[in-house]
Amino acid sequence: MYQDKFYNPVDQNDYDELDQEKIFEKTKYQDRGYNIIYRKALRKDGRQYNKKIEIYTSSGCGNRIRDAETGEYLNYIVGSSDEDVFFKVMLATGECTSANGSYTLFYASPQHYANHLLCEVEPKTAANWEEKRDARLNIQRVKNLTRLKCDK
Questions:
Q1: What's the CA gap between 11 and 25, in Å, rounded?
Q2: Do residues 87 and 96 make contact, with C-beta atoms less than 8 angstroms apart?
Q3: Which helix (H) or strand (E) holds 38?
Q4: Model pTM above 0.90
Q5: What is the DSSP string of 111-130?
Q6: Are the beta carbons of 49 and 41 closer than 8 angstroms?
Q7: pLDDT digits over 41-76, tens only?
Q8: What's the rounded Cα separation, in Å, for the pair 48 and 44?
């Protein structure tokens, strides 16, 4: 029959869930900012193992900032004062070999960075970053208020 060749969502299809997962994994490798690194982690029994961590680097100046853990592109620009809103890390260990040539990672906070890369951030570093971020956010608030007053 001619209609047997049409797609039917109820019938068995060419792609099953496993195939879709494989396709998704393959597309990650085509992403120029995608990298896999390994960090030592502890199992419940106390033994160490190499944990696979997926990271996404942000490209150079003028491009959008990218969340290092999820790979989501954000509405902030690399190389601008927008960077002050994020905890910026340069992964200069040599293990980051992204095709975009960058090893810059942006995180929402020092805690986000520490949780993702299984490391610790010194409290003084976190406090300095919070001051810098708060100053940037205050400048942005003033600009927004000034713009609102001018629009009236």
A1: 25
A2: no
A3: strand 34-42
A4: no
A5: HHHHHHHT----HHHHHHHH
A6: yes
A7: 989 898 999 999 999 999 889 999 999 999 999 999
A8: 9
